[in-house]
Amino acid sequence: MVSIREVAKLAQVSPATVSRVINGTAKVDDEKKERVLRVISETGFVPNEVARSLFKKSAKIIGLILPSIKNPFFTQMASAIEKTADASGYRLVLCNTGNSPDKELSALQMLTSMNADGIILTTSNEQIHEYIENCKIPVIITDRRLAIDGACYVHSDHYEGGRQAAEHLIDCGCKSIVCIKGPQDISSARARYEGYSKVCNEKNIKLQTVDCDYDFNAGLEVTEKILKKFPDVDGIVACNDIVAISVYKVLHKKGIKVPEDIQLIGFDNISLSELLTPELTTIAQPIEEIGAKAAELIINRDEELTEREFTFETELIIRETTKLKGDR
Amino acid sequence: MVSIREVAKLAQVSPATVSRVINGTAKVDDEKKERVLRVISETGFVPNEVARSLFKKSAKIIGLILPSIKNPFFTQMASAIEKTADASGYRLVLCNTGNSPDKELSALQMLTSMNADGIILTTSNEQIHEYIENCKIPVIITDRRLAIDGACYVHSDHYEGGRQAAEHLIDCGCKSIVCIKGPQDISSARARYEGYSKVCNEKNIKLQTVDCDYDFNAGLEVTEKILKKFPDVDGIVACNDIVAISVYKVLHKKGIKVPEDIQLIGFDNISLSELLTPELTTIAQPIEEIGAKAAELIINRDEELTEREFTFETELIIRETTKLKGDR
DNA sequence: ACTATGTTTGAAACGGGTTTCAAGAGTGAA
DNA sequence: TTCACTCTTGAAACCCGTTTCAAACATAGT
After folding, report:
1. CB contact under 8 A, B46 and A113
2. What percent of chain A has pLDDT over 70?
3. What pLDDT was estimated at residue B52?
4. In this complex, how many residue pairs, one in chain A and one in chain B, have their CB atoms less than 8 Å apart?
5. Which end of chain A is least crowded, N or C, by CB within 10 Å?
6. Which residues, other chains included, contact A288 with Cβ-Cβ below 8 Å and sequence gap of 6+?
7. CATH: 1.10.260.40, 3.10.450.50, 2.60.120.200, 3.40.50.720. Which one for A4-55?
8. Which H/E stretch holds residue A237?
9. Is it true that domain A61-157+288-313 has CATH number 3.40.50.2300?
10. Quick check: A15 contacting B, CB < 8 Å?
11. pTM
């Protein structure tokens, strides 16, 4: 691996001059510049990013800390972050926590000590509170809202999304709706349910709920439970698209027709929801916008922020698991 | 950010001693060790990973260069890589290339200059040849086989997978099978097709093929084409699960029953293929094993390699889109 | 008591770009 | 010709954890 000092020697200039040529930080005599460039291309010299970031205290890195890389929602968000980051020359360092607070903290420390320029984090764990507040790099919390000052929040309007889901099923004529509540330690799941139940209260609809994790197998189980507990159910609000898919699967296996017998709505609008047969009616989050915004907040971190919370609107996407026809 | 020199000053020892305490690289007087540990916990000192990796020439980083982060196959592989990496204290730096050779090369250079300990790469681009052969860190090419010396290869036996798919549809009684060939510049797609066509030749089955990209929309189009060109088709071998899903979607929309009218088999066994209704019959690649193996090759890079190519077996997973019943 | 061996320790060098600072070169005006 | 000012350039310090090397000290053996 050739170093800047070797390039300097071969081009008969000082390392400082080579640095100035590479970065265009100061005027360099044309003849010398050419010599330097020639040596660089002959030797294939690439500046060592580690040495650079040691001095600059910026590694051009965005840290991404997620509960699970396999979850399509996070994957789509990660993809949007990567796209935005890459366009500005930033790389993504990925950490998977499986919701473990220990792993979250160590990922956070790790990324700070790597001179990351900012961290994008999805967590429900308030214990990392202190670390984040003392953190000198921006920390962006996506999808969820915690009570941590010093962080930025980027998420959808889950409350409104919950309302939209409830209203849509009611508009579709459902009389006995069951809401599958997501994990209530997650702020977005809480907000969705609050929006949902608000509408039900306004319209005097009886609240029928079951609890469920954001997990395919949990969705399979909870569907059985719904059918047993609420035999007259004709509408199901799933806590996310993955759970909606599992609900559909159980209903289909039992010969229950969707949307004829039971109507079904998901949440997130992961790209999968459109690939399925039948296509899933769902509440769309602007996943790409959320990811892009989070990345931008880090890339433009020197700009003074007027807001610390960015809320995006959700949108009802009517497809094939409910009866009203959408635009499509 | 407190440095090792500050810690040393506060603990009244030299930076060298602090380093020895942190890393356990040499015996340190118990009393001093305790002083150092106390100062570390009081100040919240975390060693700067960048300075460390500048000296050590290892950043404890695995670079992962993929055509697309959204593709579930790669996501599942990435997840397995992350799991293996994390267990040994390595982080993942993710680069998305969208198959652009320029981006591949710059990601490769970038990762080398970041002192990455190794790179896992999925590409069909032979142009990066020279760079990889001169690369001083291990480069592992997954899923595909190129003609690049100096790289390691980790993949499934796609040829055998192609054979299994063909044999299964024949066993299921298909008389007019259409094979959707994947992009033939990708070695694994070629191998699958070779395995497939070998079986057809052995059994005197007419080869009926169409070309298709690994893409959902391409799958929708190609299905229309199949129905037009081969109206008596009763079996379809899709080039991967995503395309199989899109094929199913078109067939379903046209009222064609799967597997009654047309049987369908995918490739990969992404977790999605089991979530669907109907569940997809497919040729499984051991995605997690491939990812883990690739990561291990980097983590254990000092061990002498006896092989440069690691081939995993594929497995026929019979589910609901073909007529023979599997174990389940 | 004195050599021999072993252990602990800190000063200093190292890794490789970047930046500061002051010297040297060049230009123009007086 | 000389003073003033600008532009280009390289030496050296810097970022910060690690390691080498030799000094200092301790223990054991004779």
Report:
1. yes
2. 99
3. 97
4. 130
5. C
6. A76, A77, A79, A80
7. 1.10.260.40
8. strand A235-237
9. yes
10. no
11. 0.95
